[in-house]
Structures are given as C-alpha cells and as structure tokens.
Model the fold of this input.
Amino acid sequence: MPILRYGFGILRWTQAELRGMDRKTRKIMTKYKFHHPKSDTNRLYIPRVYGGRGVLSVIDCYQQECICLANYLKNNNRSDPLVASLVYRERYGSRGHSIVADARTKGINYEGGDCVVMG
Done:
C-alpha cells in the first residue's frame, strides 16, 4: 500500500479502479498462501485486536490520504508560499480535480486535528 499512497492525493481514482486493486491484492495474498480461497474477505479488514487480519483496504487508504492532504493544505497554507498558492488554486481556480472537494463529496470529515496514517 505505501507505493499507492503517493498518487492518491494527486491522481483521480474511480471506485471501480480501487475495488479492482483490492481484488488483485486479495488474489496475490491467496496465491502466496496468506489468505485461504474460501475464507471470509471481510475478516481481512477487521483489526487484529478484534480477531481480523488487520489489512488496510485500498479504498480506506485512498480516503485516509485525501483527508491527510486536505488537512495539510488547510493547516499549512500560511507557512509555505507554495502551499498557499495550492490552497488558492483549490478555492478559486480549480475546474478539475480538487482534493478538498473530493473529501467533502465523499462525506469525509477532514476538519479534525492531526492526521494519523496507519500502515
């Protein structure tokens, strides 16, 4: 998952593409005997504390990265002129892909404090 996180806030991914990557991940895990073919796939994503395998889904990683990037843009726009120009573009000049708008349309609350990325 770490290699995918670099492009999550920058590239636009559809839900079908994210689900497809999740499916490929499970196929690889089954191929190398990390996951049994007849085992429940939902149990993969349950935290280890609750009896699951603790694997992060691709969709969850995507949402976390969008939240973290939106938080970063919101909180650090005064300290760095480059970030300030990105925030200005996000607010006033963006006709295409907008990180903050994506976080809002998904119903994700990114207004919280610190962003903690697991994995």
